[in-house]
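Narrative summary of target 7.
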Amino acid sequence: MGYQQEENDYFRLVTSKRDVIANNLNSINVAIGDVIGPNNPIDTWSTLGYFGRFSYNFKEKYLFEFNGRYDGSSKFEDGDRFGFFPSAAIGYNAHLEDFWEPAFGNAFTQFKVRLSYGQLGNQNVDSYLYLSNIPINTRLAWIVDGIRPNHAGIPGIVSPEITWETSTTKNIGFDMAFLNNRLTSTIDIYNRETENMFGPSGALPAVLGTAPPQTNSASLKTTGWELTLGWRDGIGDFNYRVNMLLSDNKSVITEYHNPNNVISNWYVGKEIGEIWGFEAEELFQSTQDVESYLSNVDLSYFGTGWKPGNVKYLDLNGDGVVNVGDNTVENPGDRRIIGNTEPRYRISINGGLSWKGIDFDVLFQGVGKKDYMPSDYATLFWGWNSRGHSNVTEAVLDYWSEDNPGAYLPLPMESGGRNGFDKDRATSTRYIQDASYIRLKNLSVGYSIPAHIMASIPAIKGLKLYASGENLMTFTQLWENFDPELADVRGSGRIGDSRAYPLARTISFGVKVQF
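Modeled conformation, tokenized:
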């Protein structure tokens, strides 16, 4: 049987089992090299998976479970399409042992230890990267014989051996309860190693002349922990509860082909989200200040035409020039790691109480550490950007002038570029933002009418009045034009980052009737 026939039979098996996730099953023959036509787009794909599970429970004390997955994806070439991803977990309920209660009493009412190991595969990558495709476009940018014809481009470099990205997670956890289950706690500590990550093939010579293809080019290690605490108790008709969730993690690149450790790319040891920037705490305050500083320090890397109100960048390595050096970890010039965009120490606190028909619930959430550096054209921060779409608010009016020498923002300039405002908007310690926050996400109060009052209205079995509020208060040091939940560098350069529909503060009242 030929290769093509084998593949057709294989995908008929997939279809008959209805285990396919695809945009168009009729188009799956693209994976076997057939000609692509208008009804056979290359962006369709299909998956096939088998899985099994074995569980064992002995007297609720000893628990064991094994899972196995065997998954295949048409996005990868034959021979690299399938992967086996096993996982296993064991649990031990020590508090069910005969020795537990005599030794600990009700101090520990639950003590469970959990260990787990598991792998998962990821195929979230463009389809058929192993095939050489000729891009076909319409309306050429040049007029030929009076028309703008269709045209074909040059095929990109293929990724012949691209396959599943694999994440391996190891976890140890403890489930505990104390004082007759009034106090509960869960602790998890985990390590996740992601291998064969999808990414560019690594640093390649500039003479290549095209973008490097995506390959399984990197590995990543994530370590983290989660802690939950809960307390529940009551006195007579008064009952209350408080729960807290706190978690943290960080991810570090452990493998990537970047022999020169170029900062602008991934490199071994790079922590995901790190921000490299310059030291700058002051603005030039006078022409004499500018001339005196520039006589000793060269700032030409940033631009020209320095004036009072421009940012004063510091020469950290003392060589008389402020720049990026070789843009490598070993020689970063005058840059250093000044922050990280990844959220750390996520926290959530919720609680409630009830007393004689009155109930009260509250939810706080936040992030303990996160940094944000506005991009050059983040108009919500800088204001004017010379390209339109600017946002002139009260916050951005705190710019430097002779009448406002202590301003936060630099001298406003009409245009960008090296002689304009670009030189003041380099990533620096002066303008990096603390995006940590705590927010009162929800608060609700209700009152249920007592049953003896409602007894006079037989048709109604229950009546409750309530009021609730969403996003009522936020505590943060972030620039006032930004929402800390949305602060991020994204969007086009003309519009700027962190532009999104703001979270609404909502207050509502209602009546709940039960018939």
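The longest helix spans residues 3-17.
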